[in-house]
Amino acid sequence: MISNIGVPGLILILVIALIVFGPNKLPELGRAVGRTLKEFKSATKDLTNDLNDDAPQKTVKKEIKEETVLTVEAQEVTDAKSEQKH
User: Fold this and answer.
1) What is the pLDDT of residues 5-30, one digit of tens each?
2) Which parts of the chain span the membrane according to its record (predicted)?
3) pTM
C-alpha cells in the first residue's frame, strides 16, 4: 500500500502535516518519526539476527539426535548378534 504512494501523494501528506501541526512543530515531529523508524529498524535487525543465530544450534541438535538414534540402533544390532552367538 505504501509503495503505491508517489511523489504527488508525499507532497499532499507533507502539506496536510504542515497545516495540522504548523511550521514550528513539523521539525520536531520529523525527528520523532525518524527516531521511531530507527528504533523499529534496529529491533527488526536484532530479531532477524537472533533467529539466524538459533538456526545453526537447531541443526546441530538435530544432527546429534540423529547420531544418537543411529548409535542406539547399532548397539541393539550388536546386542542381538552377541545373543545369537551364545
Assistant:
1) 788 998 898 889 889 888 888 888 88
2) 6-22
3) 0.45
